[in-house]
Amino acid sequence: MTQALLDALNHNQFLSGGLSLMVVGAAVALLRKVPGQLWEFLQRRLTITVEVPDRDPAFRWLQVWLALQPYASRARDLSLSTTWVPAGAESDSAVVFDPDDSAATGASSRVRFLLSPAPGVHLMFYRGRIVVLHRSRRDLQNGNSRTFQENLSLRVLGGSRALVEQLLEEARRLACPKSPGVSVLTSRYESWETTSWQPRRPLESLVLADGTLEDLLADLKSFYESREWYVRRGIPHRRGYLLHGPPGNGKTTLVLAAAGELNLSVAVLSLSNRVLSDDALRGLVDALPPATLLLIEDVDCVFKTERATSDQTGVTLSGLLNALDGVSSREGRVLFLTTNHPERLDPALVRPGRVDRRVELPNATPDQGRRLYLWFYQGCGIAAEELESLARLFAGQVPPGKVCMAAIQEHLLRHRGAPEAAAHEVDFGDSPRDPSRGEAPSPMMAARDA
Ligand SMILES: Nc1ncnc2c1ncn2[C@@H]1O[C@H](COP(=O)(O)OP(=O)(O)OP(=O)(O)O)[C@@H](O)[C@H]1O
């Protein structure tokens, strides 16, 4: 049979010609693919590529790094991202634009224009290696608003993994302020991004009832140190705090001060957001970076019923509970809830396991007034005894439980550099102002809340 087929091929020139054409065609098609495949193989072998989506903190670091590369100063296609650098937040970054008038006015922050290569392909060098940067942008529809998502792809020719890690570490050091402080993260879609940086607040500047701050710090430290203990006993390693009390008595400040003391970041989440859904909230809680306190403010304001969304938020109470309890929720997660109305909170939200400790920050006592006064005027040139007696005079005019600490701070600020006037001409504006007792907030608090 084979012999018959070969004979037929030998004697039929159409058949043999067609077959030869087929073989040659297949060989050419195969050869045409070879350079491409060879190139891909070489690329895989000789280059290393790292993809950085904009929801990753390294995206921002790389933007700073790129802005500082010699390539960026020559590039003609640039992308701008503007940030404000608070005074004191020193970084190695040379991309700070310090307008002359900011020095004249003593402005407390400087504007920083980050000009990094625009979307497209760019070629640059890093430690003698060629780096191909591919920056891409994709339009997104988020509820009624349109926005975009970006991606950086860095391909280092002849690079190694160690080299990429070195580059990323360099970028991180350039982008992060050198002085100690707290990074504040806010949500963007289902991820977190660092949106501001607060200098570390001296603990003495936060004047609370005796022991409140020390207890909270000790509790937090012991929580972070006892991971093994939780794991051995099969208890989820999470902790929740409820800070409650009238506005302006340091709930937010306490969280920032604790974060500064323990070298943590703070992720601030506002539930008053129609676009935020239960799923997005869950994604956010799951994506919380390590060593970050999750702060959800004014939790009493948003929910109507357990399963329904209100006109203030797209999140339901059961959605929030699921997000906080989710199995993939980060181990070691610390949650701070703040409220002016603890009595309005659903018992399920504050049950043990979700809220382990409640800390009340009530309106000021005269002694808190005295201590804040002393903190304000220390080193002002008045002898210690005289300052103490002025502080006592001042404290005697603080009506117990009637004014908030923010109002006292406001009064002292009005008399900055004038301790005698601050003690003799006491005026707390519209205080008392405890909304839980149905009193109207002062213009200052209303403006702050707005
Ligand atoms: N106990 C305190 N000691 C020193 N300063 C305080 C204290 N409480 C509040 N302040 C000052 O008052 C201002 C407002 O404080 P903060 O925002 O922390 O209050 P809050 O309780 O979170 O208010 P709200 O409930 O309105 O969010 C801050 O500038 C802070 O410096």
TrEMBL record:
Compositionally skewed regions (Basic and acidic residues) per UniProt: 422-437
Reactions this protein catalyses: ATP + H2O = ADP + phosphate + H(+)
This protein's GO CC annotations: membrane
Amino-acid biosynthesis as UniProt keyword: no
Ranges of residues in domain AAA+ ATPase: 237-365
CDD domains in alphabetical order: RecA-like_BCS1
InterPro entries: AAA+_ATPase (IPR003593), AAA_lid_BCS1 (IPR057495), ATPase_AAA_core (IPR003959), ATPase_AAA_CS (IPR003960), BCS1_N (IPR014851), Mitochondrial_chaperone_BCS1 (IPR050747), P-loop_NTPase (IPR027417)
Source domain of life: Bacteria
Domain BCS1 N-terminal, chain residue ranges per copy: 22-206
Protein's membrane topology: Single-pass membrane protein
EC number, UniProt record: 3.-.-.-
Subcellular location: Membrane
Swiss-Prot/TrEMBL keywords: ATP-binding, Hydrolase, Membrane, Nucleotide-binding, Transmembrane, Transmembrane helix
Region (Disordered): 420-450
Gene Ontology MF annotations: ATP binding; ATP hydrolysis activity
UniProt-listed PANTHER family: BCS1 AAA-TYPE ATPASE
Family assignment from sequence similarity: Belongs to the AAA ATPase family. BCS1 subfamily.
Annotated protein name in UniProt: Putative ATPase YjoB
Organism classification: Bacteria, Pseudomonadati, Planctomycetota, Planctomycetia, Isosphaerales
